[in-house]
Amino acid sequence: MPLPNPPRSTDDVSGGVYMDAIADNIDALRYSVLQFPIGDGEAVIETGIWTEFLFPDAGVIEEWRCISSETGSISIAIWKRAWGAGVPTSGDSIVAAAPIAITGGIQGSDTDLTGWSKIVAAHDVGRLSINSVSGINSALVFLKIRRT
After folding, report:
1. Neighbouring residues of 9: CB distance < 8 A, sequence distance ≥ 6
2. Rounded to an integer, what distance in angstroms lies between the CA atom of residue 118 and that of residue 68?
3. How far apart are CA 89 and CA 74, in angstroms?
4. 25-61: pLDDT as tens digits
5. Which stretches does DSSP call E strand in 25-137?
6. Cα–Cα dist 69/137, whole Å
7. Contact criterion met (CB below 8 Å) for 40 and 139
8. What is this structure's pTM?
9. Is the pLDDT of residue 148 over 90?
10. CA distances from 35 to 9, 24, 94, 102, 139 (A)
11. CB 142 within 8 A of CB 38
């Protein structure tokens, strides 16, 4: 979000317009959003490991969203391990019994993250694993992380 034009008078600043815009931009810096495209839109998505990644910043996972252009269902786990401890496996799942999921639709989201291990360290190694999929050939996963 670009900053608005600077105030032309002290009334603009005292009125809060410019200060609100600055506060909005500072707030945006408090978050990382990771995006993971899944599938190519043509071939059936197969179950199993999809991708590995690094968490760029220390923080707390606050939300996930998943969207697809096809109606169907998909369930995705996140596995995580500390940098230097090897590649995460299914025993390192952070999603408990509440995986990222679309169930008979085109989108899903969650901000409660019940049971999740939400705290991540900078450079933790993550892995997405597709638990199940039906009718979806592509999806996009977003993780919102509040930096600490």
Report:
1. none
2. 24
3. 20
4. 777 789 999 999 999 999 989 999 999 999 999 999 9
5. 31-38, 48-54, 59-81, 100-110, 119-120, 125-134
6. 9
7. no
8. 0.83
9. yes
10. 41, 22, 17, 16, 10
11. no
> Which domains are assigned to the chain?
32-147 (2.60.120)
CA distance 39 to 137: 6
Sole residue written with tokens 């608005």: 4
By 3-state DSSP, what share of the chain in percent is helix, strand and coil, each rounded to 5? Answer: 15, 50, 40
Q: Is 13 helix (H, G, I), strand (E, B) or coil?
A: helix
Q: Which helix (H) or strand (E) holds 122?
A: none
Token pair of 37 as six digits: 């495209």
At residue 141's C-alpha, the angle toward residues 143 and 96, to 5°, is 65
Euclidean distance between the first and the last CA atom of the chain, given in angstroms as a whole number: 22
Tokens coding 31 = 């978050």
CA 114, 60, 120, 88 torsion-angle sign: positive
